[in-house]
Amino acid sequence: MKRHQRANPGKPSAAPQAKLETGLVVSTHGRHCVVETPDRRRLICHPRGKKSEVVVGDHVTWHLTQEQGDEGIIVQIEERKNLLYRQDEWRSKSFAANLDLLLMWIAVEPVFSEAQLTRALIATESAGIQVCIVLNKVDLPGADAARQRLAPYRAMGYDVLELSLKGAEDEAKALILPKLRGRSTLVLGPSGAGKSTLINALAPHARAEVGEISHALNSGRHTTTTSQWYWVEPDAAEGVGDHQTGIIDSPGFQEFGLHHIAPTDLPRFMPDLGKHLGGCRFNNCTHRQEPGCSIKAAAEQGQITAMRMSLYTALFDELSQTRW
User: What's the rounded Cα separation, in Å, for the pair 88 and 259?
Assistant: First the structure.
């Protein structure tokens, strides 16, 4: 017969259950995250596990650490409505989650890469995120050439804005702010296109916030290597701000891998090609050399530009080689 063990009077009672709270991830720095609570407090949090899956824009559940009362532990990432990321053969790089809008920020100078623009738009389309293309520095001599290169994207239905931000911040803000109202927006684009000028115009407190985070993490001088969330300052004329309109700065990129997308799915995420799907002779048509291809026929009739077909073919070949 099993004997009952007596309770040890010297054994401490179980630790009280930690209080769970919710928050928004506003920046990530390696194994550290900065979480903003509903009452606008910000604190450093650490994800559980060896690998962090937390990205800016995530809504998370967290609790304070028992060792320190001013830092937290993230215990759960709430379900995302979307995630924008790029992926090469070896690793993926997330930009942000739960986005309402992507501002694809390019400029007359430096001359933007149409291949990189196409890759970013494909990733955004695959994530189901609305896009607005912004062409900055239209006061420069190359503006007409840039407009011509963007004409096919206007024809596809993309919203394309033109502005000159430097020296005309008020006019640019009047054009941009209505797009951002009450939304979470990621600004994505190459270095030198003027993203930082936009962020500083919409959120003048941005540099101070970055400095505070760098000081708290003892990271020294901050450079934009990860995404960073800012609240657009209140603007009575536009009715934005007051922690209703968020804008996310992102690091510039040189490469934009699409290895998370199957080559056969590419036409669905390229609007000018996708509108001609369904008319091919073969169900498994790759739209490259097969007879009776509706997309090839559209290209031959001038409905799809040669540049776009060239970009599609190159992407299809690239993604096919990495999968087979």
Answer: 6
Alpha-carbon 125 to chain mean position: 12
Cβ atoms of 87 and 65 within 8 Å: the answer is: no
Q: Residue 235 gets which letter from DSSP?
A: B
pTM for this prediction: 0.86
Q: Among 185-194, 236-245, 259-268, where is mean pLDDT lowest? A: 236-245
Strand partners, 222: none
Task: Report the DSSP beta bridge partners of residue 28.
Answer: 33
Report which secondary-structure segment, H or E, holds 59.
strand 59-64
For 259-268, letters b (16+ CB in 10 Å) and e give bebebeebbe
Q: What are the counts of helices (DSSP H) followed by strands (DSSP E) for the chain?
A: 8, 13
Instruction: Give the rounded distance of the alpha carbon of 98 from its chain centre.
Output: 9
In the chain, the domains with their CATH numbers are 21-77 (2.40.50.140), 83-249 (3.40.50.300), 263-323 (1.10.40.50)
The pair of structure tokens assigned to 272 is 């000018």
Q: What is the pLDDT of residues 107-142, one digit of tens each?
A: 999 999 999 999 999 999 999 999 999 999 999 999
Q: Of all residues in the chain, what percent carry a pLDDT higher than 70?
A: 84
Lowest pLDDT segment from 36-50, 76-90, 96-110, 118-132: 36-50
Q: Tell me the CA distances in angstroms from 217 to 43, 209, 220, one per residue in order.
A: 11, 12, 8
DSSP H helical ranges for 128-261:
143-156, 169-180, 195-202, 206-217
Supply the DSSP symbol for 309. H
